[in-house]
Each structure stands twice: as C-alpha cells, then as structure tokens.
C-alpha cells in the first residue's frame, strides 16, 4: 500500500518559527470510511482543534492536493507544506508507524538546525583595553 | 487571562485528588506543561478550569501524562518548547495511558453519579479525535474498542453534558 501525505507545520509565536506538527495522509484504511484524509500528529491534547480538523475533513472530503481546506480558521497558525510525499507499508498500522518516524525525523532535523543556529562563534579578538576609559572621565 | 490561577484542589473531585495524590504543585506543573505544549493560550486549561467531574477528567489526563514524562525526564519542564514537543512525540504511550485513565474515570463517574452505562468507545468518539481513537485502538489496552453507532455517540454526548453540570 502506497499512501501520499503532506507535512503540517504550526507557528510557534514565542520562538518565531514554523515547526513540524503532523501530517495529512490519504485514508486507504477500512476505518473512518467517511474521511478522505486522516491526521497523524503529535498528541498535543488540543481536542477543539483536532475535532475541528476531523469535521472539516468529513465536510469537504478533500484530496491530498486540497488539504489546505482542512485548516480553516487555523490557517493563520498552521500550514501544509506544498510537497506531496509518499510512504509505503503493508497495512494501515505500518503506514502510521512509518509516518510517525518521518514526523520525528522532521522535528529532530529542525530542532538541531535551530540549535546549530544558536551557536555563538568564538570572538575573533579580545578587547585589550578593558580598563581604559575612552570617555576621558577620570574621577 | 490565566484560567488556572484561581483554581484550587477544592475545584476537583476529592476522591480522584486523593487517589492520584494530586497536590497544588501538580496543578502549577500541569499549567506550565500545557503552556509549553500548546502555547500561552493552552486551550485545555479552559477544560480543566470547568472543575467538577468533567474538569477532573481533563486534569487527570494531564497529571498522568506529565508524571510518566517527568519520571523519564525529570528536567523536562526546563526545556524549550520544540525540544519538549520532539521528546513528546517519542513518548506517545504516555498520552495513551492518560487517555485510558481519563475515559475510565469519566465512564465510572457517569455510572456512579448519573446511574447510566456507556462504552468508553462512545465517550471517546463523542469528545475526542479520530487520532486519539486510532491511538487507543492500536495500543495494548485490553478494553473493547469498536467504532460506536450514532445512537451511542449521541447518548455519550448527552451524558457528558449532564455530568458537566453536576456540582461536587
């Protein structure tokens, strides 16, 4: 079974970054038969948002190409990456496990990139006149 | 507005508070944890702030989840937000255990307080997400989890609405 998916990112306002949150993926399973897409995401306990996304999927029945429609009123804080990727597995459970690995890899990659960005370079020189007073105020 | 600043342990079911040994410090930790995960608004804090049996169920979820995570990473609450989220994604089992405690508690209270019986699957379907339903279905939980019919889901919604109004 080959399933197409797209990554979802959410906006972390305090950090000022988009960060991986989950993915929309095509529902090729025999559960939730009224849903064209399913969500694999970190279980952040925000059920209002989760139920809203579920309801939008049932209402609009979007294809993976149309996944943005699911975001609705959350479109200012969430975005769907444009790339459509594929994942392969024997069954739904295996697909979900694989998606989880991909999501973790994405989160870890971005986290490490951010940490690397914070590294403060060694100063190229040291101040040698720290005790001097350039203003000339000698009192 | 910070929805938990006025909360005290007295807002919640005393039996559950005693059974889980929940303290005022736990409340503060849960608030900090939720803001780390969900941002400054932390919508789940509003569910907890309802108090009573309904709010207690939401609180139990976070208490159980956080205790598991802190046992594994005692400094977790000192981390930055994306590190916590990345770590969290590796510990999905903590969320599943929390779901089980939360919904078992709700089922029990509906039986005790309202005298009605309802399946956990119907409660979960009525209030949570497909994602959570799927997670529980894939877990090792020995309970019976079948997709409920519309009638059961409707009953679950009505019972939860009644439970929400019950004062301690």
List the defining traits of the structure above.
heterodimer, A: 139 residues, alpha+beta, 5-stranded antiparallel beta sheet, 2 helices, 5 strands, 29% helix, 24% strand, globular, B: 168 residues, mainly alpha
DSSP strand tally of chain B:
0
Q: Which regions of chain B contain 5 or more consecutive residues with pLDDT less than 50? A: none
Low-confidence runs of at least 5 consecutive residues of chain A: 119-123, 130-139
Which bin fits the share of residues in helices of chain A?
25-40%
Strand content of chain A: 15-25%
| Count of runs of 4 or more consecutive helical residues of chain B | 9
Q: Indicate the overall shape of chain A.
A: globular
Give the radius of gyration of chain A.
23 Å
The helix content of chain B, as a percent range, equals: 55-70%
SSE order of chain A: EEEHEEH
Number of strands of chain A: 5
User: Gap between N and C termini of chain A, in Å?
Assistant: 81 Å
Assembly type: heterodimer
Structural overview:
The complex is a heterodimer of chains A (139) and B (168). With 139 residues, chain A is of the alpha+beta class. Chain A has one domain (2-118). Chain A is built from two helices and five strands; from the N terminus they run E-E-E-H-E-E-H. Chain A has helices at residues 47-60, 92-118, and strands at residues 2-12, 17-26, 37-41, 78-80, 85-88. In chain A, strands 1, 2, 3, 4 and 5 form a five-stranded antiparallel β-sheet that branches. The model of chain A is unreliable at 119-123 and 130-139 (pLDDT under 50). By secondary structure, chain B is an all-alpha fold. Chain B has one domain. In chain B, helix 2 (24-38) crosses helix 4, helix 4 (52-72) crosses helix 9 and helix 7 packs across helix 9 (150-165). Chain B is globular. The model of chain B has no long low-confidence stretch (mean pLDDT 91).
């Amino acid at each position: 079974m080959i399933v197409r998916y797209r990554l979802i990112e959410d906006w972390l306002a305090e950090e000022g970054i988009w960060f991986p949150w989950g993915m929309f993926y095509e529902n090729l399973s025999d559960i939730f038969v009224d849903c064209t897409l399913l969500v694999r995401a970190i279980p952040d306990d925000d059920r209002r948002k989760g139920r809203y996304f579920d309801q939008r999927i049932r209402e609009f029945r979007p294809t993976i190409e149309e996944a943005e429609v699911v975001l609705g009123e959350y479109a200012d804080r969430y975005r769907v990456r444009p790339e459509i990727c594929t994942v392969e597995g024997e069954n739904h459970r295996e697909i979900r496990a694989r998606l989880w690995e991909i999501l973790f890899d994405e989160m870890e990659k971005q986290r490490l990139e951010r940490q690397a960005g914070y590294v403060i370079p060694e100063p190229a020189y040291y101040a040698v006149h720290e005790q001097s007073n350039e203003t000339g105020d000698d009192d | 507005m910070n929805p938990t600043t006025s909360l005290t342990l007295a807002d919640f079911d005393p039996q559950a508070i005693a059974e889980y040994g929940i303290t005022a410090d736990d409340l503060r930790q849960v608030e900090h944890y939720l803001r780390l995960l969900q941002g400054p608004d932390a919508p789940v804090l509003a569910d907890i702030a309802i108090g009573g049996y309904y709010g207690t169920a939401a609180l139990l979820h976070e208490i159980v989840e956080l205790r598991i995570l802190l046992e594994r990473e005692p400094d977790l609450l000192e981390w930055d937000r994306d590190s916590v989220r990345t770590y969290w994604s590796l510990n999905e089992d903590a969320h599943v255990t929390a779901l089980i405690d939360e919904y078992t508690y709700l089922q029990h209270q509906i039986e005790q307080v309202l005298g009605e019986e309802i399946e956990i699957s119907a409660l979960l379907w009525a209030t949570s997400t497909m994602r959570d339903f799927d997670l529980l279905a894939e877990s090792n939980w020995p309970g019976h989890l079948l997709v409920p019919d519309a009638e059961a889901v409707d009953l679950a919604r009505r019972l939860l609405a009644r439970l929400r109004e019950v004062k301690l």
